[in-house]
């Protein structure tokens, strides 16, 4: 008669051995130590990164027609934005306009997220893309303040034709800047 490995009370996987528990505890402690070295501005940037990821997941779930993961990702993004809004010091006399502006921004973005969820088809996907762009723009502003690298990839100037408009592109060139081909 063989013995089965011990199971969790929920009937799940086998319980980890003492070394696995110790290594998880060490990993959690190391993570906690690393988190304490971040400045408040860096934490704000990290929260924007998480919100961007959540919005991207909601949009991908929409594209795949899976409403439950879409709702979960949307909820994660809303929680992050509401959390950032909750950290605002509205009573601080040094910058009441900034606090009010950020509060309005968070309210508007959350409303747009819910509108994206309610909107079907390509229009809903476009709304998610718009929200993603708005959060990305705000993230870049905070990243600059925090000294955190940008997520935007600068154009490569070492490639042949970098910075030039390709023939047949959708970009319009003003008439006074066009080069004559005659």
Task: Report on the architecture of this protein.
- With 182 residues, the chain is mainly α.
- The protein has helices spanning 18-36, 40-64, 67-86, 96-118, 121-146.
- The longest helix has 26 residues, at 121-146.
Level-2 CATH architecture of the domain at 34-149: Up-down Bundle
Looking at CATH, the homologous superfamily of the domain at 34-149 is Flagellar protein FliS
Class based on secondary structure composition and strand pairing: mainly alpha
- What low-confidence regions span 5 or more consecutive residues with pLDDT below 50? none
How much helix, percentage-wise, in residues?
55-70%
Written as H for each helix and E for each strand, in order along the chain, the element string is HHHHH
Please outline the major beta sheet: none
CATH class of the domain at 34-149: Mainly Alpha
Shape annotation: globular
Helix tally equals 5
In total, how many beta strands? Answer: 0
CATH topology of the domain at 34-149: Four Helix Bundle (Hemerythrin (Met), subunit A)
Strand content: under 5%
Our Rg estimate from Cα atoms comes to 24 Å
Q: Could you give the distance between the termini? A: 92 Å
Global mean pLDDT: 82
